[in-house]
Amino acid sequence: MGLFSFLDRSSKRSVHSRRESSLQESTDTVMKQGTQEPESTAAQKLTPEAGALLKALSIFHCDGIQEKLLIEGARHVHLKACPKTRLDYEKARDELLRHNLVKWDSKKTELSIHKLMQDVVRKKMGKEEREALYDIGILLISAVWPFTTFETRNKVWRWPVLEACLPHVTQLKEYYNGTHENKVERQSTEAAILFNDAAW
Length: 200
Hints:
By secondary structure, the protein is mostly helical. The chain has helices at residues 3-31, 48-57, 67-71, 86-98, 115-123, 127-144, 159-177, 189-197; strands at 65-66, 103-105, 110-112. It has one domain (49-197).
């Protein structure tokens, strides 16, 4: 390896390290909840609802997170801070947007979140919280998943929904398989039903 090639690679690693460190510090700031007013915009703390939404986003695929996926099944989620109505969801979403923690495609009504941000959020979770959020992810997807019979499973009307949801189902399945650092070690009946219908 030439000197210039070595220096170039070292520089790229250094930049990546600084970015990850900066992202960690930013997330540390906004994830902490408190009662005091923030001294600046950069130090502003997330509300419980926005924090819960950010955690939910961390368990899905980073791109193409449909808003209806986050809204339609929310009323069944037994998590106090989780936004249950569209209005509460929009308030939490807008707060995350103000902090530049997510991106929003208003035409597709989809959210996206950087993978590094997902990693930082997940690393802050203990095993119990991680498994609870895994169950919530299964519940939210199941609320919009086009379940059907074996005879009609290949109907065309299912394809758009399957295309939108499969990346997120795959992500959750990988958590269970342990391909991610923070493995989920248990399986629920709802997850088994969803994975079975998705042909796993």
